[in-house]
Each structure stands twice: as C-alpha cells, then as structure tokens.
C-alpha cells in the first residue's frame, strides 16, 4: 500500500452524490439452521467433544472470546458434499431483496439497475444478477460484482454513480453460502456464516447524499485468501480437498491493518469531516480484532460502532449490509445523521463511504 492509494477514488470535499439508502433487507429463509458454538465443537471434535477438547487442553469458550462469534446461520454442514436440495446464494439474495424493496416501498418495476454481490455463486458462468432479476421481475441492467469482503462498498459507489447518471433506484443484493466451502478441521469453521442482505439506493431530493467515497485494491496478497482449487474442478484438486476456503498470513494481516487506517483517513480528508461529525460507524464484520481496530483507527467509540458479529459471524460481503440493517432498525441512524461504512478483505480490496441519511 503506497502513496498511489491516496489518489484513487473520488468524492472530494464539496461534491455530494444525491443518494440515500431507502431500504435494507435480510435473508435467512427456512431451510437453513442457526448453529451455536457448541454445535461447531461437535462437528469438529465429535459427539464427545467436551472430553476431547479437555484432553487437548482446548477451551470451548476460546473461539467466542477470540473471534467474537456466538452463532451463525448455515444452509449446509461444512465438510459435507453439496446437496441439490440445500439452499443456495440465489435463495438468500432473493429473500433479502424482497425484504429490502418492501422496506423501501418500491416495486420491481421501479428498479433501474441491479447489482449482485457474492463470492459463492451457485453458477459457474451465469450471472446471479440476471437470475435474480428474473425471479424478482426486474427488467433493468443487472450484473455481478466480486472483489472480496469490500464488494458492498464498491457496489454502493457504483450505485451512486448510476443514480447521478439518471437512475432512480438501484438494488444491491449480497449473499453468500460460506458453509459450503468451510473446512471443518480448522478454526475458520467457527468464523463463517451464511446470509442474504440487500439495500435499495435511491435518488435523494433533499440534503441526503454520499458525502465522500474511497475504494482501492492491491492484488499482492490475492493468492493468500480464497478457494485454491481450479475451475472447472479437477479430480486432483478434489482428491486434495482444495475446494475449502483458505487463509494464509504472509504479510496480509499487516496490510489489512493499514487498510483499516487508510479508510477513515481518506474519508475524513475528502469530506472535511472528523470523527465527532459521524453519528454511527458501520464496518465490515470480519472478526473481533478487526472490528476493534476499525473503530479505533476511525476514532469512533464502541457505542457508535455497529457490531453484529456475534449473531451472524463473518458472512463475507453480505455482512456489512446486515450491520447497516441493524443500525437502521435500532435507530442508530436517523434522518440528517452522517454515518460511515468501511470494509477491507479479499485479496486485497478496501474502501469506505460517508453518507448523510
């Protein structure tokens, strides 16, 4: 991460994009299940997990204390072969999109563009967005976007630009089924969850708007996170179990830390605002340490930082909209408030926005 990133993005001081998030939705349809940490212990260590963990000197409470996750929603059991009967990302984004449009008070015919955000598409080639548009009855440009856990931020920036160009409402639908790619033999199985989430970004006629935005990518560590198996699948990769999510830290964690600092620094510079002007911070819900780091680097106290990690786990790019939905639901963000959103992850992309609601 060098000085180049200070020049990437836009939303410089004085330019406000006329947008407002008018509806949030979540998708946890029937067919999945809520899984507590004790259930994950049983999956990883067997039905006699208490005795096994005691023999290994492992603390059952360690994973919640370390990762900050108490429960998560899964549509599949990690380590089991994918079943045609199990829910897919399509099911989750469809449920969340329906919820978001209802909360925004719009119909499918009102949507002028649809952006689908996922890292676990059930299709090898077909766009999730195209299928979703058909399911919802949306007749508008529809496309997928994928850049790791920061994809929701990238989608918000693109949606704002589409609205500045004439669109009225842009639907962003995010969803992932990470349970299908989690390795049940390592700690990642505790962190990951499945979810659908969606937002409707609409043209604002008042003072509401996107005050600043900032996005960037550095692919140096792009090979350290993800599913390493080739597509289409090969017999060799299948035999080697290379279709599980992997995370390696060979300098990536330090770069992530720098990204979390860069996000508020850039947004404050571009907007002319400071931490005291921000009512609420909605960061990507990656892990307990990263949430604490994000708040600290932004200068936002815990009481003004949204944390839903314990309830949902890390659901990839869908997670930030889950957090935003909770903030809206609990009235942590009200008309006239300025709030900040930030995310970093993948291999490696990061960014943020400041909006006036």
The name of the CATH superfamily of the largest domain reads Thiolase/Chalcone synthase
% residues in beta strands: 15-25%
Task: Report low-confidence residues grouped into runs of 5 or more.
Answer: none
Helical content class: 25-40%
- Can you tell me the CATH topology of the largest domain? Peroxisomal Thiolase, Chain A, domain 1
Cα radius of gyration in angstroms = 20 Å
Total E-strand runs: 13
Number of domains: 2
Shape: globular
Described by strand count, sense and barrel closure, the largest sheet is: 5 strands, mixed
By DSSP (H or I, 4+ residues per run), the number of helices equals 12
SSE topology string? EEHHHEHEHEHEHEEEHEHEHHHEE
Describe this structure in words.
The chain is an alpha/beta fold and 357 residues long. The chain has helices at residues 37-45, 49-56, 62-67, 89-104, 128-136, 151-164, 188-191, 235-239, 252-271, 288-298, 309-312, 319-329; strands at 19-27, 33-36, 71-74, 113-117, 142-145, 169-177, 194-203, 209-217, 225-226, 246-247, 280-283, 338-345, 349-356. The strands form 4 sheets. The protein has a 5-stranded mixed beta sheet, with helices on both faces. The protein has a 4-stranded mixed beta sheet with strand order 8-13-12-11, with helices on both faces. Strands 2-3 form a two-stranded antiparallel ribbon. α5 (128-136) links the parallel β4 (113-117) and β5. The longest helix has 20 residues, at 252-271. The model has no long low-confidence stretch (mean pLDDT 93).
């Amino acid at each position: 991460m060098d000085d180049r990133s200070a020049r990437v993005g836009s939303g410089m001081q004085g330019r406000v994009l006329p947008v407002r998030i008018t509806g949030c939705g979540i998708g946890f349809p029937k067919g999945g299940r809520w899984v507590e940490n004790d259930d994950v212990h049983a999956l990883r260590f067997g039905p006699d997990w208490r005795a096994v963990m005691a023999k290994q000197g492992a603390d059952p409470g360690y994973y919640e204390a370390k990762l900050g996750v108490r429960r998560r929603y899964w549509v599949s059991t990690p380590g089991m072969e994918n079943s045609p009967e199990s829910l897919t990302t399509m099911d989750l984004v469809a449920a969340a999109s329906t919820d978001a449009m209802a909360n925004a008070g719009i119909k499918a015919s009102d949507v002028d563009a649809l952006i689908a955000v996922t890292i676990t598409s059930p299709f090898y080639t077909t766009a999730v967005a195209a299928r979703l548009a058909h399911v919802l009855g949306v007749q508008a440009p529809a496309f997928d976007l994928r850049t790791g856990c920061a994809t929701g931020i990238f989608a918000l920036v693109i949606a704002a630009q589409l609205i500045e160009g004439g669109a009225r409402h842009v639907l962003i639908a995010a969803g992932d089924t990470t349970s299908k790619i989690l390795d049940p033999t390592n700690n990642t199985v505790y962190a990951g969850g499945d979810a659908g989430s969606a937002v409707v970004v609409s043209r604002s006629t008042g003072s509401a708007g996107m005050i600043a935005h900032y996005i960037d990518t550095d692919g140096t560590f792009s090979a350290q996170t993800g599913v390493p198996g080739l597509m289409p699948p090969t017999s060799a990769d299948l035999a080697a179990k290379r279709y599980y999510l992997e995370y390696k830290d060979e300098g990536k964690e330090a770069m992530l830390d720098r990204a979390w600092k860069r996000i508020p620094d850039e947004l404050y510079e571009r907007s002319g605002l400071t931490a005291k002007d921000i009512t609420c911070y909605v960061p990507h819900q990656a892990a307990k340490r990263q949430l604490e780091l994000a708040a600290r680097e932004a200068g936002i106290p815990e009481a003004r930082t949204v944390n839903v990690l314990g309830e949902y786990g890390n659901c990839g790019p869908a997670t930030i909209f889950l957090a935003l939905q909770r903030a809206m639901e609990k009235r942590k963000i009200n008309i006239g408030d300025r709030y900040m959103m930030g995310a970093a992850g993948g291999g490696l992309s990061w960014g943020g926005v400041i909006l006036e609601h």
